């Protein structure tokens, strides 16, 4: 614990700075959580969700994992989505990847990592599906960055295909799914223009009838 004293010191300074700016901040924060956004992002420590979009605690509901993957078998991610949509009534689900993602890079190569190999399998499948187009890119880093974009696009589709999201649409609940990507080198967020706000925007075979 002694090695982590600086973290507690940093926390005290942060809390004091927040209270100086708004003495009632933590009192108001403790009363309720009412974010309008669910952020599904990468666990990479260089991608701090709140800071990137300039939001304070309480304004962004966050789920993070390696390479911002949304799997229909991942009860952790799906539970976060269900709570965010059904209980918190968020209006936006934002899938955010980042350029230079180590998880995406690993899925593009054959080196074993361990348990995470299974987690990254869906990205490896995506890489295989897109291999002919990606072969046209000469530069390895540019190819990686394009794969990071394709991964976000795929995860936006996966989010939109869930019964959680589609049932919200059936209830006429305002809910939009977005795909963003973050540049670690310049700190800029980019909209990939794959926004989905209704079932008519997804392929027919993935549209679910009302319960």
Descriptive notes:
The chain is of the alpha/beta class and 211 residues long. The protein is built from 10 helices and 5 strands; from the N terminus they run ααβαβαβααααααββ. It has helices at residues 5-21, 25-31, 49-52, 75-87, 102-107, 116-119, 121-129, 131-134, 140-160, 163-170, and strands at 37-42, 60-65, 92-98, 176-182, 189-191. A 5-stranded mixed sheet has the order 2-1-3-4-5. It is globular and about 55 Å long. It starts with a helix and ends in a 20-residue tail after the last strand. 27% of the residues are buried. The mean pLDDT is 94.
Main structural class: alpha/beta
Binned strand content: 5-15%
Could you estimate the helical fraction of the residues in percent?
A: 40-55%
Question: pLDDT under 50 segments (min length 5)?
Answer: none
Radius of gyration: 19 Å
Q: Describe the main β-sheet briefly.
A: 5 strands, mixed
Q: In sequence order, what are the helices and strands, one letter per element?
A: HHEHEHEHHHHHHEE
Overall pLDDT: 94
Q: Widest sheet: strand order?
A: 2-1-3-4-5
């Amino acid at each position: 614990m002694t090695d982590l004293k600086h973290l507690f010191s940093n926390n005290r300074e942060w809390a004091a700075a927040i209270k100086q700016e708004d003495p009632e901040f933590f009192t108001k924060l403790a009363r309720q959580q009412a974010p309008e956004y669910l952020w599904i992002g990468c666990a990479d420590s260089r991608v701090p969700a709140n800071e990137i979009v300039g939001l304070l605690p309480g304004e962004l509901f966050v789920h993070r994992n390696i390479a911002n993957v949304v799997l229909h078998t991942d009860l952790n991610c799906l539970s976060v989505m269900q709570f965010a949509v059904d209980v918190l009534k968020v209006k936006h689900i934002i899938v955010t990847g980042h350029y230079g993602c180590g998880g995406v890079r690993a899925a593009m190569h054959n080196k074993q990592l361990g348990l995470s190999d299974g987690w990254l399998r869906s990205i490896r499948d995506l890489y295989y599906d897109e291999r002919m187009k990606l072969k046209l890119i000469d530069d390895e880093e540019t190819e990686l960055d394009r794969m990071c974009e394709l991964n976000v696009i795929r995860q936006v589709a996966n989010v939109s295909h869930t019964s959680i999201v589609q049932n919200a649409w059936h209830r006429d609940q305002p809910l939009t799914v977005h795909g963003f990507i973050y540049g670690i080198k310049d700190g800029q967020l980019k909209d990939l223009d794959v926004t989905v706000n209704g079932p008519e925007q997804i392929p027919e075979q993935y549209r679910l009838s009302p319960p």
